[in-house]
Structures are given as C-alpha cells and as structure tokens.
C-alpha cells in the first residue's frame, strides 16, 4: 500500500469520525433543551386540527399550566396529542390524574441527506386525496386499523390546506384506495423556525395484496417535504411496534429524545391502564368486542383467551361469549348451523334459493351423474369451519374423489353441491337487522417476472398474517396446486410480470381471502333473504353466506350460515357496536343518546 492510499484512508476515517461526533453532539443538545429558542420564535400556543384530534405543539406554549389547559379542551371521541414536550415530568405533575406520557418513540428523517428509493411501486401508485370517495376510503382504512375516524367532509374541506398533506395509494386495477398517510408542514402550521415536518396516520388496508405500500407512502411524503425545503420529517411510533420501527430505520430514520403527552380517555385507555390479564392472547375477533365493551364501561373477564371466551357484565346482567357467539344463541340454533345439510333444509323451507346437493358415497355412478348434470361442483365437509377442506369449481371425477378424501379428514359426512359461479357474499345479521355486507375474494398473486409462484404465495401469506393478527394465511397444499394447474402453472414456475393468478378458489378469510365492504350497495332482495334465513334459524347473531352474480343484483344461492361470524374486517360498519347494543341496550353512548331523546 503506497503513502497516498494510506493518507486517503486516514482522511476518510477522520471525516467519518467527525460526522459521528457531530451527530452525537447534536443529539445531546436536543436531549437537554426544553424547547425552541430562536430570535424569531414560532407562533404562540400553536395547534392544528387533524380531524381525529389536534396536534398541540408544546414548544410554542409559555408554561405547563397553559399546555394542560389546551389538553383539557379535547373534543369528545377525539385524541389530542401534545408533541415535543420538553419537560414531561413537569407537565405530568400539573395534572397526573388527567394526562399521561405516551409510550411512543419519536423518529426523525434528515431530509437534507435523504435519498429517494430506486424501486418503483408495482400494481399501485401514490397521489393526493382528491375526492369525498377518497375520504370515505381513508376512513375505512382507519377503522380497519383501530384508528380514530375522521368526518369525510373534514378531509374534503382541508384538501387545499397548505399545512396538511393527504396522500393515498391507489390500486391500478381496481381503483381502490389501499393506503394513506398524512403530513404536517410545521413551517406553514406555526412558522416553525426549525423548518420541520411530521408524518401521521400511516395506514395500509389489511386486505391489500401489494408489497411495499407503507414504504412507498413514507418515501413520497418525505420527497414532498424535501421539495418544499423542510429540514426534517418526524414521526411517532409505539415502542413495541417492531415491524414499523424496522421499516423506519431501514429508510434512514433515527430515534430522537422527543416526548408526547395525551389525555386519559377511553380511546387511549390501553396505553395507560393496566391491561386485561391474557388480553394479548385473544384473537382479533374477540379483541374487537372486548375493546368496544371496555369503551362503554362494560366489565370484561377473559375466561379462556386461547379459545376466545370472555364474560361481559353490566347493570346486573352477565353474558358469557365466545367471540360473537353468546348465551343468547340457543343450542338448537347452533346445531342447525353446525350441520350444513340441516341448515340448507331449514332455509329452503323458509323460501330461500339453495343449490342442488348430494351426500358423497361409494356410488360412483350417482357421483358421475351429478357431476355431468352440473358441470362444476363444490365439495365440503358437512361439519367444519374456516374453509377447511372446501374445494370449489371441481370439474373432473378424479378431482372430486380427491376432494372427498380430504374432506373426510375433517368430517365423515361430505357434501357435494352444484357450483354457482359468482362472488362470495357474507351478510352479518344482528338482532334480525343487516349490519354489514361484504364480498369475500380468494387470494391472488401478481407476478414480477423474477419470483416463483411459491415465493409469491409465501410473501402474500406473511402480509395477510401480519394484517389479521395471524388469523389469515394461505396454505400451500393440494388445493393450491390444483388451482395453479387450472392456469397451467406449478409452484416453482416464475410468474411473468403483471400476470395475476388465483391460488385458491375458496374465498374464506382464514385461507388467505380478502373481504371488501359492499353494505351501501347490496341489493334489498339479498338483505331480505339473509334476514329471512336468520329468522328461520331463530338466531340473533349470524353470518349468512350467499353466492351472487354481483351484490347489486338480486340473484343468489344460499351457501351456509355461521353461528359465530367474525365481526372484524367489516370496517367501517359498526359490527361490534351493534353486538354490544344487542347484549346491553343501555350501555355506553347509546344510553346517553337515548336519555337525550336522540334515538
């Protein structure tokens, strides 16, 4: 090694060490300061309304008492956040019974050194929010992620607000909004001398099938603020959200010692109150109901978390539940739903349209005749749930025999039905009223020209599991291989870029299907049929499944009734609220509205 090379290496090492020392010095400075001290300070007592609550910029308040007074002005059903609190211990001492220190980390992206990503999004694009339909879609995503919803007109009236930027991700094929992020420009919000900005409400539709939506939204917002001349972009993330923290660190965000304070209210309760014992072991369907009960002041006792059992008590009344199945559902109604053949007979006598059906036997001649008559059939166990061993669209005798053998591993009695081509529609009926209607679609993968079908399925399965708390995954089994063969594909084939392929025929959520709300457009005849089925079974909470040509037309065939329908994933419909209304009609806000004569 020559002297020139050594000198170059020493110089590079010196510059690197100097840069590290500078960053450490700046970080120490940020941790010691209690607010912004500039000759030209920001506006005093700066707040900005974000629809779900206000961002209260603590560094612009003169003292802690004034900041606490601002937090006390929080509107009902909103979540205000005091950010950049310099001395949180002093602020908490002002009102320890009313406010708490948010258990979130603050991360910062230095925009002067940020470099845009090279990878372009596949199957979606990012744009600004431009319509009230966009606003409703954003609210749906907020609801699916347990976030505070915003009045759609708020988004629309603030679309030209220079301080607030709303970006959405749109699916190129369907046109659906599948992700959203909000940005706040501190310079325009309160003349921030530090020229900062911040990111809020990053949310991706749990039904979205594309990879990289969240990362793309973060990058686009960062590029937007960098083009405006902002110095940095901050964000707040819960300390235990390891997946999000890993994404932000990958993009170049670094943690800074900044703190946030919030009010103690029903929305924030899980952040400051002692958690229910075994709460984390509940699945999303049980947790949705438990959360709604706690918001209403209904006492919750988790009796078996792994099974989804809990007891709700209010006003001297106690009801034991397993997710949406409660003591109000009779054993007879449950037995009817448990056996698909019995369910079919009950609803057929009530006047519903049902598919032709036979019980699988060793009579191959009868099986061939049924298959020849209908062309395509469905094979499913007479008893079973979550789509296990259900095979759809079988057209050959060998396929049917294989499916019957698989179904018999779930239940000795196997049913064969005529296959009705169309979409799988779930209607949730509570107290004999429609609460939600949703189309369930089977999982699809989209090729990129480099990745095998197997890897694409595994990647989509991981995303579905992450979005549903592990409830939805895509099995790679004989049914998956059969569906691929229908498209002349095998698991280890590389799928060409842009080609979309169904990897299962059944649209069940537990086997990777996605669910899409159609409550506002479902045909009245379908609603009538679902309610008629619920009354025939005499069941207060039920999921009625139809196959339909389209949810906007009256044609249907009845498939089955689920006595324990999952109430999650039907956002923005108030499924958990209506379930609690059924169990405890005078609980929560409903009781308050009733007392005021607003019902």
Compact summary:
The chain is of the alpha+beta class and about 600 residues long.
Task: Give a written overview of the molecule.
- Keywords: ATP-binding, Nucleotide-binding.
- Residues 344-588 form the ATP-grasp domain.
- This is N-acetylglutaminylglutamine synthetase.
- It comes from Rhizobium helianthi.
- InterPro entries: Acyl_CoA_acyltransferase (IPR016181), ATP-grasp (IPR011761), ATP-grasp_RimK-type (IPR013651), GNAT-acetyltransferase (IPR017534), GNAT_dom (IPR000182).
- The protein has 599 residues and is of the alpha+beta class.
- It is 34% helix and 24% strand.
- It has 19 helices and 27 strands.
- The protein has a seven-stranded mixed sheet, sandwiched between helices.
- A hairpin with a 2-residue loop joins strand 21 and strand 22 (433-441).
- Helix 10 crosses helix 18.
- The longest helix has 30 residues, at 3-32.
- 40% of the residues are buried.
Please supply descriptive tags for the structure shown above:
single chain, about 600 residues, alpha+beta, 7-stranded mixed β-sheet, 5-stranded mixed β-sheet, 19 helices, 27 strands, disordered C terminus
């Amino acid at each position: 090694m020559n002297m020139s090379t050594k000198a170059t290496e020493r110089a590079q090492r010196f510059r690197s060490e100097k840069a590290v020392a500078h960053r450490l010095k700046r970080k120490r400075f940020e941790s010691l300061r209690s607010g912004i001290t500039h000759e030209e300070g920001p506006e005093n007592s700066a707040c900005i309304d974000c629809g779900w609550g206000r961002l209260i910029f603590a560094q612009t308040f003169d003292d802690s008492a004034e900041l606490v007074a601002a937090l006390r002005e929080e509107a009902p059903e909103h979540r205000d956040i005091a950010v950049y609190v310099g001395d949180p211990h002093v602020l908490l001492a002002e009102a320890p019974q009313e406010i708490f220190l948010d258990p979130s980390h603050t991360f910062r992206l230095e925009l002067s050194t940020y470099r845009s990503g090279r990878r372009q999004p596949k199957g979606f694009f990012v744009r600004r929010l431009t319509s009230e339909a966009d606003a409703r879609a954003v609210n749906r995503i907020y609801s699916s992620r347990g976030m505070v919803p915003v009045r759609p007109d708020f988004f629309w009236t603030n679309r030209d607000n220079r301080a607030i930027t709303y970006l959405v991700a749109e699916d190129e094929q369907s046109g659906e909004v599948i992700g959203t992020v909000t940005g706040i420009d501190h310079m325009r919000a309160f003349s921030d001398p530090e020229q900062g900005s911040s990111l809020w409400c990053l949310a991706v539709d749990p039904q979205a099938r594309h990879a990289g939506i969240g990362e793309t939204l973060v990058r686009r917002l960062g590029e937007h603020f960098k083009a405006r001349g902002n110095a940095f972009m901050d964000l707040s993330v819960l300390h235990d959200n390891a997946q999000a923290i890993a994404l932000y660190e990958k993009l170049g965000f670094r943690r800074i010692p900044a703190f946030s304070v919030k009010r103690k209210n029903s929305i924030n309760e899980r952040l400051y109150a002692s958690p229910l014992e075994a709460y984390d072991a509940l699945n999303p369907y049980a947790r949705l109901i438990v959360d709604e009960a706690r918001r209403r002041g209904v006492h919750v006792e988790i009796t078996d978390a792994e099974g989804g059992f809990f007891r709700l008590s209010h006003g001297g009344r106690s009801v034991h539940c397993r997710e949406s199945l409660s003591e109000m559902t009779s054993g007879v109604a449950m037995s009817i739903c448990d056996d698909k053949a019995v369910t079919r007979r009950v609803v057929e006598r009530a006047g519903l349209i049902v598919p032709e059906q036979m019980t699988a036997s060793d009579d191959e001649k009868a099986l061939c005749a049924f298959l020849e008559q209908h062309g395509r059939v469905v094979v499913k166990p007479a008893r079973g749930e979550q789509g296990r061993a259900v095979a759809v669209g079988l057209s050959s005798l060998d396929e049917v025999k294989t499916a019957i053998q698989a179904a018999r591993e779930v239940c000795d009695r196997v049913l064969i039905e005529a296959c009705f081509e169309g979409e799988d529609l779930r209607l949730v009926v509570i107290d004999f009223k429609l609460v939600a209607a949703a189309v369930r679609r089977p999982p699809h993968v989209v090729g990129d020209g480099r990745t095998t079908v197997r890897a694409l399925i595994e990647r989509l399965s991981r995303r579905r599991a992450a979005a549903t708390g592990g409830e939805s995954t895509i099995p790679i089994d004989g049914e998956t291989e059969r569906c691929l063969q229908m498209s002349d594909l095998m698991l280890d084939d590389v799928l060409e870029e842009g080609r979309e392929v169904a990897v299962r025929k059944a649209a069940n959520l537990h086997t990777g299907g996605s669910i899409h709300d159609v409550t506002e457009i479902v045909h009245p005849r379908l609603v009538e049929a679902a309610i008629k089925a619920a009354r025939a079974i005499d069941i207060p909470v039920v999921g009625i499944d139809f196959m339909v040509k389209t949810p906007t037309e009256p044609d249907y065939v009845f498939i089955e009734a689920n006595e324990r329908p999952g109430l999650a994933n039907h956002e923005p419909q108030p499924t958990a609220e209506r379930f609690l209304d059924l169990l405890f009609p005078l609980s929560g806000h409903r009781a308050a509205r009733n007392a005021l004569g607003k019902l």
